Amino acid sequence: xxxxxxxxxxxxENFINDVLKEDLRIIHLKLEKVxxxxxxxxxxxxxLRVMTDKNMHPDGFKTQMNLGCNFFMEAxxxxxSQLLINIGLNTFLEFSLLEANKYLDARIKxxxxxxxELLKKAAETKAHIKLMLFGxxxxxxxxxx
Length: 145
Fold this sequence. Notes:
Number of helices: 2
Strand content: 15-25%
Low-confidence stretches: none
Shape: rod-shaped
Oligomer: single chain
Mean pLDDT: 89
Strand order of the largest sheet: 1-2
Order of helices and strands: HEEEEH
Helix content: 55-70%
Structural class: alpha+beta
Number of strands: 4
Distance between the termini: 11 Å
């Protein structure tokens, strides 16, 4: 009977280490990517606000554009009423200022929902690990000496 309990404990420990902890690691990697996307979108929204602020730049603004291989060219932007935004796969779409803000808000909301789902999955996986550890401790207490 002791051998049977020890085999069960070993199986539980292997399941925790090989399956549940690996699932948790993958969830955390996905969560890092989603949070990086949210951070990038918030940064884009802030840059949009700064570039289109008429109090800061009443006549437009000047910037430097990277033409490739770190070769920069000075650019002057007089009209910021229409913007080109990369919507994915290097596809750019023209937006008005209001449309761009709505688009960025919608993308942020989607990624934040995804982040909440991943956090929920991580909590469930941690709960499974704790439950398995509790089961192991129960088996060890009932194991004959």
